[in-house]
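Incident log, structure service

09:12 report received: a user says their structure output differs between two submissions of the same chain.
09:20 pulled the input from the user's history:
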Amino acid sequence: MDFRSEDDDNGRWQGFAFRGGDIVISTRSKSGTTWMQMICALLVFQTPDLPAPLGELSPWLDWLITPRDVVYAQLAEQRHRRFIKTHTPLDGVPVDPRTTYVVVARHPLDMAVSLYHHGANLDRQRIAQLSGRVAVSATPAVPDRPRPPLHEWLVDWIEWDGRPRERLDSLPGVMWHLGDAWGRRHAPNIVLVHYDDLCTDLEGEMRRLAGRLGIQVPASRWPDLIEAAGFDRMRERADELVPGPAGVILDRDRFFRRGRSGAGREVLTVAELDRYRRRAAELAPPDLLAWLHRDDPALTG
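09:34 re-ran on a clean worker, output below:
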């Protein structure tokens, strides 16, 4: 299935040469992507002292900012176990039996709030230049219209009812991405991770993932790796962990904004939360919603 936007194109996966042991991290935006990349880096290298910035170690293959041939060459040169980022659902990525696919899910309302704040921290003109949509010498774009307040924006986000592929970070897009992964969850090379579990039991989730990846970590190394994967520690290392070339993110310190759950439910009224519940139930099966909304039984569908 084709998934394309102004920023990425899953067609770039066609022809990619997988290796045994590859790891593909497949997430929606602001759902713990960088966190999972860091966890994989720590498990692969078994030290907090990474040999290069995280974005070089774990490139976003679909992103149009870096030419496809450059990304392919970068990955071909890597001698370590590769872990590759994508925001494409698994039905848009070649599924190779030698590769492990890690899908991170986050409560959709929390993901949406984080996405709203992230949007204000992007230089979209710079992104358009780097992806070739406008010339670097072009006249600066007319500033975007002011965005609506968060509450209004979030209510509209819940109500949007277009095709998932048109807006993968919409509620239909999120549920499409997660629903596809949920249907594959029993496959031996598919691993689902919940953002809330990373928040409440980081050590347990890191050990579980190491087991699924077949990575053995000496007992003496675990404390340092777990500490390095903590949200506060990652925020301190924003310059080497935040993705993208210089200028794309306006303020790298703001990339790691909150790191906990509940922001979406804090914004909405009881009636609006009920409307979200009904919309979610239209888009996803009850067992997925029960897993996804585990901290709020009223939203399980």
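09:41 both user submissions now match this output. Likely a transient worker issue. Closing.
09:42 reviewer note: The chain is about 45% helix and 5% strand. The longest helix spans residues 270-283.
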